[in-house]
Amino acid sequence: MIKKCFYLSFVAISVLNANSTTRLDDVVISSAGFEEKIVDTVKNISIITKEDIQNKGFSNIKDILKRSPGVSISSKSVHGDQIDIRGQGDKASSSVLILVDGVSINSLDQTHVGASLDTVDINNIERIEIIPGGGSVLYGSGTRGGVVNIITTKASKNKEFHGYLTAKYASYKHKEYQANLSKSISENIFLDTSFQKLNKKGYTNGTKDDKLSANASLKFDISDNQELILNASYAKSELVVAKNQLTKEQLKEDRKQAPLGIHDSEITQYSEYISRKRKYDLKYTLAQKNFSLETLSFYQKLTMKDRIDKNKGLKFKFKVPFEKGYLVSGYDYEKMKAQRGEENITKVQKETNSLFLIGKYNFNEYVNSMIGYRKEYASYTMQNTENTINGNTKANNDAYEFVLNSKYSDDGNIYFKYEKGFISPTPYKRYDKTSVTPLEYEVNNIKSEDYDTYEIGIRDFIFGSYITLTNFYSISNNEIMRNMHSDRSFNWENIDETKRYGVELFLEQYPTNNLTFNQSYSFINAEITKGEDKGDDIPYVSKNKFVFSMNYYINSKLSTYLDYQYFGSSYDKEKVKVPSYSIANLSLNYEFNSQLSFVTGVNNLLNKEYNEYQSTRNGKTTYRPAPERNYFFQLKYNF
Length: 639
Hints:
Elements: H1 2-14, H2 22-25, E1 27-28, E2 36-37, E3 46-49, H3 50-54, H4 61-66, E4 71-77, E5 80-85, H5 92-95, E6 96-100, E7 103-104, E8 125-132, H6 136-139, E9 146-152, E10 162-170, E11 174-184, E12 189-201, E13 208-223, E14 226-242, H7 248-253, E15 261-263, E16 266-268, E17 270-288, E18 291-304, E19 307-322, E20 325-340, E21 346-362, E22 367-384, E23 390-406, E24 413-423, E25 431-435, E26 440-443, E27 449-462, E28 465-484, E29 490-512, E30 515-530, E31 544-553, E32 558-567, E33 570-571, E34 577-578, E35 581-591, E36 596-603, E37 611-617, E38 620-625, E39 630-638
Parallel strand pairs: 6-9
Antiparallel strand pairs: 1-2, 3-8, 4-5, 6-7, 8-9, 10-11, 10-39, 11-12, 12-13, 13-14, 14-17, 15-16, 17-18, 18-19, 19-20, 20-21, 21-22, 22-23, 23-24, 24-27, 25-26, 27-28, 28-29, 29-30, 30-31, 31-32, 32-35, 33-34, 35-36, 36-39, 37-38
């Protein structure tokens, strides 16, 4: 059915004439580390702009990314969502890298904790860049699935006092207020600040989410080709969630109930989490005709209940152009610390030093190639207060990349890419719990994962459509898995081999100046190819995903946006089928004048019942239900 829908939408729309090459003029920085237009890149990269985000009334990053080709979301944990690209399944938190302004927000504790996406104010996002499938030469460990780079708004050179105010009201008593204020302090110093306050009830009875965030960006124009940007952000979240998932019978009885459960011999219904995150970064850039330089120093700290994550580091890179191409080289240093527990406190640390080199060479105006290499040196420390964990270990890893690209027309290119990448384990995967009574741990000899990815892609305007088509094939060795035992002890091991392959297709048409259509389809097959579980599908990977969207400007003031999303079935860890589902969303945007506008809409328009997450343990399957039809209204005033 889904393939038929995709085919019909392609045939019906692709005959229309395109009249825009806007996509090719978009600028990205995630391909080789410095800004370049999409038409000049040698990879297929997706871009979500500020206008895309604000004109459609999105509530969070999760909703934004779900509409992107090949991306799926797993609400595995209340501590953060997993962003999955190219079939990583329940390993997505360790194999998809999430960056905010070039700094990773992935947690060291990847067993239960996803990326802290809720600490990012979506109104402060300038654009999001998505690179499917690799990036280990430029970014290091954990990019087998891809890279998501969230780029926030920086202070502009507008000398006048300006900004905006927004108020949003939605289902489940959702109340959200934002303010943005910008002003030049002097001839070459500019300030941008933003604030957000959110209070809402959850879909499940008795749950809630309260958030307060603030961001500030101070920009110094040192000279015409030099700038210094200081960013600071703070976010506090108070979250109450249902402790237990629902059985199938409880879903039928009342999807919104929060069931009772037994945890550590206590009957519980809810869990409460208070988190605070602070982030600071300082970026210096120098751009000359024959030399570009960028340095980024950063520090961030996240606290939540009995958890503390700290991350600090320095990134340095430079670009030297020459007649036939350019050379990019850099050094990355990062120290990540984490602490867990209240009585028996576990402290871990991972420190990395990395060097990388990327070169692009243009053989002629039609053919070019890119080659890259990265060397990472990692050291680990693990200990706890009872001294049942006490160990140090090291690991060195290498990454390689080769791309051959042919630009066969002004708009079209075809490329082949090979990447040898790695995923170095976190400190929490460096030790096993060998006994529960008495409590005993032991440092293991776990290896880094490594993978080989082969990719062929095309980008062009064909039959009136902007099109990107990518075929990929990836083999992973030593993929890391945790074995849980009946006495709650565990050990980590490297399984033999996994394979992922698939197709990603994106189409966009502009039949008139006020109408845009998008379609995307991805097919992914992810399976274990060697070892005891040979032939099994990798859990939580949907083979098919299809998205159709339409953006129509009815007149100069009124526009409407409609999208339809289909996610195919998958299997959980116990091989119980996770059903497919589809949802539709509709929004309406009206601009009264250049200052005042509103967005209103309906999410889950057809009121489909589906689940955000499903798990099976000891033969019992439980579910975390997703919201049914819900509404929102947002008013924005620019000044």
